C-alpha cells in the first residue's frame, strides 16, 4: 500500500474499508486523518503510527501496546471508542470514534467557561475517570488537550498512551513512573516516592476544573522548577469571580496531601458538584457497564414488522417475556403496551425530548431507548415495533415504581 500521506485520492482506501480524508493532526510519532467507513458511511478518525519510528523507541512501542490493551477494555459514553486496530508492513492504524467538536483546549483558547458549563464537563470527566478506576486503569495524563467534544458538546477522554493498569493482584501497589504534563502533574509524582494513580488523576481533574473556570493555569511559571515548587507547595490563588462553593471544592481537589485529598466518592457528593438543574454524571456500576448496556439495548426485533408469534406473546395473560430473560439482570416492575399512529422515529423523539425535561439520561440504539436517573438507576426501557404501514406498538418496561407515572406521561 502507498504511504497514505502521498496517495492520490483514488488510492486512499485503507484495507478496502476506510476512505481516507483530510489530515486532522500531526505529532512526532503519529498522524490522525478523517476517514469514512465504506461499508457503513460512518465517520471515523484514523491514527497512523510508523512502525519504523516505533522500532527506534522501545518506550513508545510499549505505550502503543498499552493504549490498545486499555482502550479495548473500556466502553463508556465519555471515553473515545476504539473500533479496531489494523496494520500494514510499515504502519499501525487505530480506527477510532470521530469527534466533530475537537479538543476542549481549543474551546478554552477562546476564553474561560461559566461555572455551569464547567460543571457539565466536569461531571462527564469524573464519570469517565471513575469508570476507568473501577477497571484498574489510571490515565496519568489528563489535560484539556486529551479531552475531546462530540457534535452534541459532550466530553470524551482520549489518549491512554501514558496510562497504567492495575492487575488483579496489584491492590495497594504504588506507581513510580514520572509521567504526565508538567502543569497538570500531582505533587506526589514530583516527590518520586511512589503514588496512587487514582489520587494523581483526581489532582489533574482539579487543575482542569480550575482552568475551565479561570481561563488560566493554577500553577504556572516560565521556569519549570519554580512551577514544580508551586505545585509541590500547593500555591495557587482563585480569581474573585469563583463562587465560595467552587473555591472550597478546588481546595479539596488540589490538596497536596494525597491521603486527605478528596476521593471520587466524595466528589460526587460535594455541594458544588451537585448544584444545578441537570446532572451529566452517571455512576460507573450502572448504565455505563458495557454488559448492562448490551442487555438493556438489545432489541426484540423492534425495527421489523410483528409476526403472529409476537402478537400472541403480547396478548393479555400470555406474556412470554419471562422465557427470554437475561439471567435476571434487570427485572421490570411493570410492562405496558399501546398502539400509536406516529412513526417510530417520532415516538423515539418524543421519549428523548420528554426525558430531557425529567432530567433523565438517554441511551438509544435504533428504536430502543433506555432512560437512566441521576444516580445511574435504570428507570425504563422503551421499544417501538412496526405493526402495519401506519401503526406501531410501543412497549414500556418500568424498572422503578416511583417513575411509572412520569415516564408514562412522555408518550400518552
From TrEMBL:
Cofactor(s) in the UniProt record: Mn(2+)
Q: Which domain of life is it from?
A: Eukaryota
- Residue sites binding ATP per the record: 47
Span of domain Protein kinase = 18-273
What SMART domains is this protein classified in?
A: S_TKc (SM00220)
Describe the location of the NAF domain by residue ranges.
Answer: 301-325
Q: Which GO terms describe its molecular function?
A: ATP binding; protein serine/threonine kinase activity
* Catalysed reactions, as listed in the record: L-seryl-[protein] + ATP = O-phospho-L-seryl-[protein] + ADP + H(+); L-threonyl-[protein] + ATP = O-phospho-L-threonyl-[protein] + ADP + H(+)
Question: In its keyword annotation, does this UniProt entry include GTP-binding?
Answer: no
Query: What keywords were assigned to this record?
Result: ATP-binding, Kinase, Manganese, Nucleotide-binding, Serine/threonine-protein kinase, Transferase
Look up the record and give one Gene Ontology term from the biological process aspect.
signal transduction
> What EC number(s) is this enzyme filed under?
2.7.11.1
SUPFAM superfamilies named among the record's database cross-references: Protein kinase-like (PK-like)
- Tell me, what does this protein do in biology? CIPK serine-threonine protein kinases interact with CBL proteins. Binding of a CBL protein to the regulatory NAF domain of CIPK protein lead to the activation of the kinase in a calcium-dependent manner.
Question: Family assignment?
Answer: Belongs to the protein kinase superfamily. CAMK Ser/Thr protein kinase family. SNF1 subfamily.
The protein here is known as: non-specific serine/threonine protein kinase
Amino acid at each position: 500500500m502507498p504511504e497514505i500521506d502521498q496517495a492520490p485520492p483514488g488510492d486512499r482506501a485503507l484495507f478496502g474499508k476506510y476512505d481516507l480524508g483530510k489530515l486532522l493532526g500531526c505529532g512526532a510519532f503519529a498522524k490522525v486523518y478523517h476517514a469514512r467507513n465504506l461499508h457503513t458511511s460512518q465517520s471515523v478518525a484514523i491514527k497512523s503510527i510508523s512502525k519504523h519510528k516505533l522500532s527506534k523507541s522501545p518506550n513508545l512501542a510499549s505505550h502503543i501496546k498499552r493504549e490498545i490493551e486499555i482502550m479495548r477494555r473500556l466502553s463508556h459514553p465519555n471515553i473515545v471508542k476504539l473500533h479496531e486496530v489494523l496494520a500494514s508492513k510499515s504502519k499501525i492504524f487505530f480506527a477510532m470514534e470521530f469527534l466533530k467538536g475537537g479538543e476542549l483546549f481549543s474551546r478554552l483558547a477562546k476564553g474561560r467557561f461559566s461555572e455551569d458549563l464547567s460543571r457539565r464537563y466536569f461531571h462527564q470527566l469524573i464519570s469517565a475517570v471513575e469508570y476507568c478506576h473501577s477497571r484498574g486503569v489510571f490515565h496519568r495524563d489528563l489535560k484539556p488537550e486529551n479531552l475531546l467534544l462530540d457534535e452534541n458538546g459532550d466530553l470524551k477522554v482520549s489518549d491512554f498512551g501514558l496510562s497504567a493498569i492495575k492487575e488483579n493482584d496489584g491492590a495497594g501497589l504504588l506507581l513510580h513512573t514520572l509521567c504526565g504534563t508538567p502543569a497538570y502533574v500531582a505533587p506526589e509524582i514530583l516527590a518520586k516516592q511512589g503514588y496512587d494513580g487514582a489520587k494523581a488523576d483526581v489532582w489533574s481533574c482539579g487543575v482542569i476544573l480550575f482552568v475551565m473556570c479561570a481561563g488560566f493555569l493554577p500553577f504556572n511559571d516560565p521556569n519549570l522548577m519554580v512551577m514544580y515548587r508551586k505545585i509541590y507547595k500547593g500555591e495557587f490563588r482563585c480569581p474573585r469571580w469563583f463562587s465560595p462553593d467552587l473555591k472550597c471544592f478546588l481546595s479539596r481537589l488540589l490538596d497536596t496531601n494525597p491521603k486527605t485529598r478528596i476521593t471520587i466518592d466524595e466528589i460526587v457528593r460535594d455541594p458544588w458538584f451537585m448544584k444545578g438543574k441537570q446532572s451529566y454524571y452517571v455512576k460507573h456500576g450502572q448504565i455505563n457497564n458495557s454488559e448492562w448496556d448490551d442487555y438493556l439495548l438489545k432489541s426484540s426485533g423492534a425495527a421489523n414488522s410483528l409476526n403472529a408469534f409476537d402478537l400472541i406473546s403480547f396478548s393479555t395473560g400470555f406474556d412470554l417475556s419471562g422465557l427470554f430473560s437475561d439471567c435476571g439482570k434487570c427485572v421490570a416492575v411493570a410492562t405496558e403496551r399501546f398502539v400509536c399512529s406516529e412513526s417510530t422515529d417520532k415516538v423515539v423523539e418524543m421519549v428523548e425530548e420528554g426525558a430531557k425535561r425529567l432530567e433523565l439520561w438517554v441511551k438509544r440504539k435504533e428504536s430502543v431507548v433506555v432512560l437512566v436517573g441521576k444516580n445511574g438507576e435504570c428507570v425504563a426501557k422503551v421499544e417501538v415495533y412496526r405493526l402495519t404501514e401506519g401503526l406501531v406498538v410501543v412497549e414500556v418496561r418500568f424498572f422503578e415504581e416511583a417513575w411509572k407515572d412520569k415516564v408514562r406521561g412522555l408518550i400518552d
